[in-house]
Amino acid sequence: MSNLIVESTYGKLRGEQLNGVCTWKGIPFAKPPVGPLRFRAPELPDSWDGIRDATSFSPVAQQTQREIMEFFGNDVSNVSEDCLYLNVWSPAADDKKRPVMVWIHGGAFLTGSGSSHWYDGASFSEQGDVVVVTINYRLGVFGFLHLGEIAGEDYATSGNCGILDQVAALQWVQENISKFGGDPNNVTIFGESAGAMSIGVLLGFPSAEGLYQKAILQSGAAANAHPVETATKVAGHVLAALQIDAANISKLEEIPPEKLLQAADLLPSMSLGPVVDGVSLPKPPEQAIAEGSAKDVTVLIGTNKDEFNIFTAFDPEWKNTNGDEENVKALFEKTFGPLLPVISAHFAGGEPLSQELFNKLVTITVFSHPAQKLAELQTNHGAPVWMYRFDWETPVFNGALKATHALEIPFVWNTLETEGTENFTGTSPERQIVADQMHQAWINFARNGNPNTDELPEWPSYDTNQRSTMIFNVESKVVNDPNKEDRVKWEQISMVMKS
Predict the structure, then answer these.
(1) If DSSP codes are grouped into helix, strand and coil, which group holds residue 176?
(2) Is the predicted pLDDT of residue 208 greater than 60, yes or no?
(3) Of 294, 327, 352, which residue constitutes the final position of a domain?
(4) Domain identity same for 324 and 290
(5) Residue 74 reports pLDDT greater than 90
(6) For residues 278 and 234, what is the distance between their CA atoms, to the nearest angstrom?
(7) Are 27 and 162 found together in one domain?
């Protein structure tokens, strides 16, 4: 049992062993970001004496429960601002230098945690001889409220506290993971949705440079950092809701977290997220990547065929359209504004606007187009890139969700048997065939930067000539430029937008 006691930089930790896999949970990687540290960059954690128990998950970041995240099994029974903790799974705390995989969870920068039962690292450790780390980071108003222009230099990086938390966790990994049997020189960061969008930011984030060698982006890319003007307006709305002005900004440190959440819940979706603040993030991530900020990073990136289906399925506005043409058109106008006539001309083909077309268009704009752009930027620097698309369709909701957002997660993690997962995936035995393929591909990529496995057809790296893409399904296959028609149409629309 002595190998379950590990001496980290800050003190000793006692983990536990279950079915041959060792785990350490609730490890602090920064000071609690409370009081005067609220809206400030994370600081190094305090050391402790004795042996700290590391057999229970920490509280998750402050957040409001949302119906869609409840469906994904997100647990908010224990939330706290004191949330900057991480968890480690390893075959053993020994001198073996295993690949390290650090997971950044999704949830629209508003919800989620590193302790979701979907993100159980046991299978990666057991089947892949990999060390897995999952992290929490500050969310929503606590992680992404940009106060720099309103409150001055002390708050210059407040809009990127959540990303700075991720960097602090990666720095902890560099300093400590060798004690847990991991290799700090073979670190893969991987994440989904806002987690993948975070990685898109980290690829252009100066203080993250050198903290990882490989990156896997699932349903997110590098197109989601707000300009400082937009972020400042959002902060202004939050301060107005709280009745705080710039002269009394220190009051923000004293307000109960529930009130901050209430004020932020009035904002439109995705209003709070990473910010091009000119300090911690000097340039838009896509620009930094285009200039070579991540040229030494090997990338695996992909999307799901029907990303947006689940969002409209849970959206009361879509539920209330009752298929009425005018109601549907109003939702298109709300999302696409003056671009709607151009989009209709390219994509509707004279047919009435529909929820199906809406889902397809938002999937392209938010997910597949940014993923292709990031892949292109990386390949321009000669960096190895692999592209995938997840096509397996879930039968739940009478098949309406198809290959929707987040569906690939339990396949990647091989956590299909986790309680409640069948509510999303169904129970078909064929699921495991897809999970075996994806799980091993991710393990191989973490091990040597190449996702090819014996279970898959040969998977060439991505380039702009062939655009080779692995289509994951019961019978996976490689297709060159699988959504070429939509890609070309959207590039034409993008040209119209720029002109």
Answers:
(1) helix
(2) yes
(3) 294
(4) no
(5) no
(6) 17
(7) yes
pLDDT category at 73 given cuts 50, 70, 90 is low
Query: Are 222 and 312 members of one domain?
Result: no
SS3 content of the chain, % helix, strand, coil (to 5): 40, 15, 40
Same domain, 205 and 117: yes
Output the domain CATH number for residue 275: 3.40.50.1820
What is the number of structural domains in the chain?
2
Angle, alpha carbons 429-433-438 (nearest 5°): 135
* Residue 407, domain extent: 303-422+445-499
Give the DSSP per-residue string, 426-470: ---THHHHHHHHHHHHHHHHHHHS----TTS---PPP-TTT-EEE
- How do beta strands 468-472 and 385-390 pair? parallel
Which positions are catalytic? 193, 307, 405
Are both 161 and 215 inside the same structural domain? yes
- Considering the domain architecture, whether residues 187 and 248 belong to the same structural domain is answered as yes
Over its C-alpha atoms, the chain yields an Rg (Å, rounded) of 22
Is the pLDDT confidence value at 226 over 50?
A: yes
Average pLDDT on 177-190 reads 98
DSSP assignments along 341-379, one per residue:
HHHIIIIITTSPP-HHHHHHHHIIIIIIHHHHHHHHHHH
Q: H/E/C letters for each residue in 54-72?
A: CCCCCCECCCCCCHHHHHC
CA pair distance 162, 164, nearest whole angstrom: 5
Residue carrying structure tokens 């893409």: 469
Residue 440, domain member (yes or no): no
Are 283 and 308 part of one and the same domain?
A: no
Q: What is the DSSP string of 217-263?
A: EES--S--PBPHHHHHHHHHHHHHHHT--GGGGGGGGTS-HHHHHHH
Phi-psi region of 86 (alpha: psi -120 to 50; beta: other; left: phi over 0): beta
Q: Which residue type occupies 303?
A: T
What is the predicted pLDDT for the residue at 1? 43
- On whether the CB atoms of residues 22 and 91 are closer than 8 A, the answer is yes
Residue 472: inside a domain, yes or no? yes
Q: pTM value?
A: 0.96
Choose the weakest-confidence range: 190-194, 233-237, 487-491. Answer: 487-491
pLDDT tens for each residue of 128-177: 999 999 999 999 999 999 999 999 999 999 999 999 999 999 999 999 99
**Checking DSSP bridges between strand 131-135 and strand 98-104, what pairing results, if any?**
parallel
Look at residue 437 and tell me if it is in a domain. Answer: no
Last residue of a domain, one of 262, 294, 326: 294
Whether 332 is in a domain gets the answer: yes
Q: Cβ distance 403 to 305 under 8 Å?
A: yes
**What is the number of helices (H) and of strands (E) in the chain?**
19, 14
Q: Are residues 8 and 43 in the same domain?
A: yes
Strand partners, 11: 8
